[in-house]
Amino acid sequence: MTLVMYSDIEDLIESQPADKTMHEWQQSTIEATHIIKPLMVEGQIILDPFMGYGTNGIAALELNRKFIGIEIDKEHYSRASQRLSNY
Length: 87
Hints:
Number of helices: 3
Strand content: 5-15%
Shape: globular
Helix content: 25-40%
Low-confidence stretches: none
Strand order of the largest sheet: 1-2
Radius of gyration: 14 Å
Largest sheet: 2 strands, parallel
Distance between the termini: 29 Å
């Protein structure tokens, strides 16, 4: 079985403004999806050592990847965990 893992990544991402009400650094999942989809295959693990509100985790789970997130701030971790539990 041959896995083709990499494909071209465009340098332009058409995005949308992120809602920053839950976390000041929150980003749209569009950017994370743009990077994760061509570089990782389904079932692989995405590690985010600065999880924040879980945006990379949402993108990873929506793309059928596994996700490990680390967050030092207990409040942000709690909010991200709750958000990720919907996926």
